[in-house]
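Field reference: "sequence" (input) and "structure" (output). Example, Shikimate dehydrogenase (NADP(+)):
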Amino acid sequence: MSSFAAPARRAFLFADPAAHSLSPAMHRAAFAWAGLDGQYDALRVTPDELPGRLAALRHDPAVLGVNLSLPHKETALALLDTLSDAARQIGAVNTVVRQGGALHGHNTDAPGLLEALRDAGMLPAGKQPVVILGAGGAARAAFYVMQQLNLPTFVVNRSPERAEVLIGSFGPKHEARALNASQVPWEKVRLIINSTSAGLGRPDETPLPDFNFHRCPRAGVYDMVYQPAETRLMREARAAGLPAENGLGMLAHQARLAFCAWTGVDVPLPVFRGALTGGPA
Ligand SMILES: NC(=O)c1ccc[n+]([C@@H]2O[C@H](COP(=O)([O-])OP(=O)(O)OC[C@H]3O[C@@H](n4cnc5c(N)ncnc54)[C@H](OP(=O)(O)O)[C@@H]3O)[C@@H](O)[C@H]2O)c1
């Protein structure tokens, strides 16, 4: 007699490298909390392999979807059937949902950042300006959020021309300028978001060298970097009495939103945070 067990739900991370990802721990904890028979695996997928890997998912009924990380967030756009408004405007997909043989691209980094800023009490009220450090994919997600909130935004990047390109690609509606750090009216700034990779794995590196945080006494600092848990940027901000948070909240929220898009289950945030920190957060 043969038995046909319902297929286990499966989700993946496609990235290169993939070995040190924290996503499997979060999504496995979420499957367990939700009581769902599911498995999440991080797979090393090279750029050459991405089209074939995505195509292979289409007709596998067990597959809920995938997360995409470096270097696939931008190149995947052309390989998917539909894109959410956020994914299209940001130009990056971090979550793919498989439905009926079609692949739908989403960006949960942007709403993940928004939720993390809200949790940290760092969302500016009114029209208080924000500084985004960086002009890569993560900066584009941050810019999208600031555009949605209609907050004046200064983009400061090591390569200034990339900051100009970023702002230009979102169109003229949003009040935004590309500036050097020395040109920013720091005394007005309410929020600084680090979306560079400066400080990632390097406790002595900062995207704002020789910066005096007393120049922006009203600002909070949100660092998307979460390794180390306290970056130099955060350390220096805190030493000047400013609130500062690392990127673990954003990481947990983007995973929560991806899991919800796949399963329809909104697993509580502490399940994801607990998987990151080894216990309830
Ligand atoms: N917490 C989360 O959930 C989350 C989510 C997404 C991303 N992130 C983090 O965000 C960071 C950026 O990711 P991404 O995908 O946007 O990377 P990316 O596209 O490669 O962009 C990297 C950015 O960092 C800048 N940069 C790199 N090294 C720098 C340095 N030493 N000093 C100043 N600027 C430097 C680059 O400037 P140039 O243009 O001059 O090269 C560029 O603007 C990474 O650390 C990533 O882990 C976190």
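The CA atoms of residues 238 and 244 lie 6 Å apart.
The pocket of NAP is lined by residues 109, 134-139, 157-159, 162, 195-198, 200, 205, 207, 224-226, 247, 250-251, 254 (CB under 6 Å).
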